[in-house]
Design a protein that fits this description.
Chain lengths: 365, 181
């Protein structure tokens, strides 16, 4: 009986995380149009509902009512599989992100369940994320090839080579963090940043490399070469229509939110915020042990979402500020600039851990 | 033991093992039997996923994740990449002569024979609940074994990779005067 309630809380948390991810991705499309409008001194969508808030729903309805067209020479099953794979890999990553501390629940007096606000806490969380990210390219490649269109194929191949190139420097940037934390679990990495010890202060170079690679992995401007409409019509989804196209576009927004969540949990302390311990102590003394802890967790989760949403905004900001790279510039940046920088970062981190840290510790004594 | 009692005695883990094995063999066969090379590659990716499932069942999470990242995520993308550039409409008659078919049959059959001969007589170590360590496949214990007991082979293997990498770069390098495509 008692285990059942704990399981139900866990199930609610998982469903909430899933739903919130989808909801945020949905309103990112609205946000993107509003931000774009703001930057270009326009008004943006304002017809559907108050402030145009129902615009994403209207878009979804429009997508569903369009003709679902499959080209006659296309490989039919792979054509359907493409957008499915894109959605699947986009949604899988959010499973290991710690959205908050933990929810406490007292089933019987003295028997307290401590349920982390995270779908699964695997001890290889970073590797899981990395694996899913490396699979993300298949949706695009399969869809682009199955369309039987030269522009689609070119877009797919561009996407694949771009993702492979930037995955390497992304992994190398993460390795520097792993050297500092000594754990592959994202929850551990977040917990170690408690008390203002955010990784951004120790890994500024790693952060710049990571965020550049995240832009490239999400195919966002200035790295949106797989779908650049001025050269390739629409890139890998040229032949797609109706909700299949919708899935491709939607997967991009989910990826954007998930990578923002990853950036905030790896470099910006996740659900930690300055003065966290003081707030926690005040809440526990005024509301009691369990309720205070839960309210504190809620505040932490809200802080986490605030950080993530800031980075979603940052994605849009960059999109409407910077022009697109040329393809050889993209490859040169990935292979000749970011990978050596990431390696230097690893060596510097290793040196600092081995020599600088003992020096500072002995100096403080 | 007949089939119904076998099904009744099935634990979830064993059931999952048999399902996964069935899937592995099925996708493995489809790799060979598919006419279209793209389909073959996609089935091969599915096979790697099944193998990763086996690693998880063996409590080797790290190996499972690395298998997905390296094989399914990197190497197979390159395979797919190359095959997509080929013109698949032209039938490649070169590789379908009777001689190559017979040669493939002989080598494959010999390998199969050796496998059967080896595994028929092998004594497999039985499961021991007392000496079993559930943490054996975790990153920490793997790292300890790799960097303590097998340090030299590990370093030698990494030098081998470095040599292969430099060799690939040398082969693909543009000579002075080569055309820039």
């Amino acid at each position: 009986m008692t285990i059942d309630v704990a399981l139900i809380i866990k199930a609610i948390i998982i469903l909430l995380i899933f739903g919130i991810t989808l909801l945020i991705a949905m309103y990112s499309t609205y946000g993107e149009r509003k931000v774009a409008a703001f930057m270009q001194d326009r008004i943006g969508p304002n017809r559907a509902g108050p402030f145009g808030l129902l615009q994403p729903l209207a878009d979804a309805v429009k997508m569903f009512f369009k003709e679902d067209f499959i080209p006659s020479q296309a490989s039919k099953w792979l054509f359907i599989l493409g957008p499915c794979l894109s959605m699947l890999t986009a949604l899988m990553t959010s499973a290991v992100i710690p959205f908050g501390d933990s929810v406490k629940y007292e089933s019987a007096p003295g028997k307290v369940w401590d349920i982390p606000v995270q779908a699964i806490d695997v001890n290889i969380g970073i590797l899981y994320v990395f694996g899913v990210v490396s699979l993300g390219v298949y949706g695009i490649m399969v869809g682009g090839w199955a369309s039987n269109n030269k522009f689609s194929l070119l877009g797919a191949i561009r996407a694949a080579s771009q993702n492979i190139s930037y995955e390497i420097s992304m992994g190398l940037a993460i390795i520097a963090i792993l050297m500092m934390t000594g754990s592959l679990s994202i929850r551990h990495i977040v917990e170690q940043q408690h008390g203002g010890n955010w990784n951004i202060f120790y890994q500024p170079l790693g952060f710049i490399i990571f965020i550049t690679c995240a832009f490239a992995e999400c195919n966002r401007t200035p790295f949106d070469l797989p779908e650049c409409e001025t050269e390739l019509i629409g890139g890998y989804h040229t032949e797609y229509s109706s909700m299949k196209l919708g899935f491709y576009l939607f997967a991009e927004y989910i990826n954007m939110f998930v990578s923002s969540a990853m950036i905030s949990s790896l470099y910006f302390g996740g659900y930690n915020y300055p003065g966290m311990d003081w707030v926690q102590a005040q809440l526990t003394s005024s509301l009691g042990e369990i309720a205070g802890h839960n309210v504190g967790t809620l505040i932490g989760t809200l802080v986490f979402f605030a950080k993530s949403l800031f980075f979603v905004f940052f994605y849009m900001w960059v999109r409407w500020t910077l022009p697109r790279f040329r393809y050889d510039q993209l490859m040169n940046l990935g292979w000749k600039a970011l990978i050596p920088l990431a390696m230097i970062n690893i060596i510097l981190t290793g040196g600092a851990i081995l020599f600088l840290k003992p020096l500072i510790v002995s100096f403080l004594k | 033991m007949d089939f119904s009692s076998f099904l009744n005695n099935l634990t979830p883990a064993t059931g999952f093992f048999y399902f996964l094995s069935f899937l592995t063999i099925l996708t493995g066969l489809m790799v060979v039997l598919s006419k279209n090379p793209i389909h073959s590659v996609l089935y091969l990716i599915a096979t790697f996923f099944c193998l990763s499932g086996h690693y998880v069942l063996l409590n080797a999470q790290f190996l499972a994740a690395v298998n997905i990242i390296v094989y399914a995520g990197a190497i197979m993308v390159l395979f797919l990449f190359v095959i997509m550039f080929l013109n698949l409409k032209q039938e490649d008659e070169e590789s379908k002569t009777n001689l190559t078919k017979i040669a493939a049959m002989v080598t494959g059959g010999t390998l199969f024979l050796i496998f059967v001969a080896v595994f028929r007589k092998t004594q497999f170590g039985a499961f021991n609940a007392y000496s079993f360590d559930s943490q054996v496949g975790m990153v920490e214990s793997l790292g300890e074994v790799l960097y303590k007991d097998y340090l030299l082979p590990f370093e030698l293997a990494s030098i081998l990779f470095l040599v292969a990498m430099i060799g690939a770069v040398m082969l693909g390098r543009r000579e002075a005067g080569d055309r820039h495509f």
